[in-house]
Structures are given as C-alpha cells and as structure tokens.
Amino acid sequence: MKYPTIFAIIFIAFNVATTRASGQNVYRCGNSYSQTPCVDGVLIDAQDSRTKAQKADSDALIRKEVATAKAMEQTRLQAQAQQEADLKKSTKRVPPEVRAQPAEPHLLRMRRISTKPRPHASAAR
User: Fold this and answer.
1) Closest CA to 24 of 15, 16, 32, 36
2) What pTM value is reported for the model?
3) Consecutive sets of 10 residues in the chain, 125 residues long: mean pLDDT of each?
4) Could you tell me if 41 and 29 are in contact, meaning their C-beta atoms sit under 8 angstroms apart?
5) How many CB atoms lie within 10 A of CB 27?
C-alpha cells in the first residue's frame, strides 16, 4: 500500500459516519440489570431526564467539589509535612538516654503481667 495514512483516515471517517450511538435497552431482572431481556424482565427507561441547565449546574457543582477536595488535600499535606518537620526538630533536642526511658514504667509492668498466657478453662478442672 502506497498511502497507509490516507487509507487509515478514510477508514476511520467511514466508520464514524456509519456508526451511530443508539440507546440501549436496560432490563431489570429481579435484583440485577441487563442489556438482554429475561423471562420476568421489566424494561427500564435509563435515559438522563435532566435538562441541559440541570446538567450544567450538576457539572459545575462537581468541578467546585473537586477543587475543594484538592485544596483540602494540599492543606493536609502541608500540615503533615510541618508536623514531621517539628517532630524531627524536637527529637534532635532530646538526649538519647532520655528518649530510651519509658514515660510510665508502671504501665510496662502492667502489660507484662497482662500478657501472660491464661490457663485454658478445661485445664483448670
């Protein structure tokens, strides 16, 4: 073939012109939905019943919510980075021997006591 690009463009244009988007039927079959009819299937009107103005309002609201979500994410990431930086600064000032000591040693003893295995109920008989 001498001109494959031209042939591809013509082929695509022909397919676009001959293929049209047609509405597909939707059937409710019990608790599921299908494009093929079933025995007790009910035909459902699945077309968007909103006007163009309602759809535009909905799209505008979605864009606003996405922008708000992105701004909230940026705020959270900045706060998280600040907390990590503050933590690094605060741990550098504390001497290692102080950091190694438990804050409340009596709680550690309680944990050791509470983690001992208990005898099984049938073994106590």
Assistant:
1) 36
2) 0.40
3) 74 70 77 86 84 94 96 96 88 60 59 58 59
4) yes
5) 17
